[in-house]
């Protein structure tokens, strides 16, 4: 299993069911050194799934005072690839360490 951090629409039950075919299991965690901004979504499929025109997007700040809260979900390698398909081109997946000390993946702005 791998860890995937969600701070936005991947926390929605409808998005999880459509993207992964199941509800994800996870726990609250946070990420330091990042801030949240937003990006306008134009991909019709992502708009349909999320029902949101603007999605949050992480931006690296490097400031230890900046913190973003979210959910750290346990996912399979196949589900990581499904998440890659869901996220639009404004995002890229990187690996990092969370406040809990666990290592996993996040989607940040390109």
UniProtKB/TrEMBL annotation:
Database matches in Gene3D superfamilies: Gamma-glutamyl cyclotransferase-like (3.10.490.10)
Domain Gamma-glutamylcyclotransferase AIG2-like: start-end pairs: 4-98
Protein name, entry field: Gamma-glutamylcyclotransferase
């Amino acid at each position: 299993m791998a860890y995937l951090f969600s701070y936005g629409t991947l926390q929605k039950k409808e998005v999880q069911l459509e993207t992964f075919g199941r509800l994800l299991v996870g726990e609250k965690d946070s990420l330091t050194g990042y801030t949240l901004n937003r990006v306008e979504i134009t991909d019709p499929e992502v708009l349909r799934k999320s029902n949101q025109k603007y999605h949050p997007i992480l931006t690296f700040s490097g400031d230890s005072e900046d913190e973003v809260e979210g959910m750290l979900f346990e996912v399979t390698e196949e589900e990581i690839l499904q998440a890659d398909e869901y996220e639009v081109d404004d995002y890229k997946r990187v690996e990092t360490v969370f406040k809990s000390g666990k290592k996993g993946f996040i989607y940040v702005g390109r």
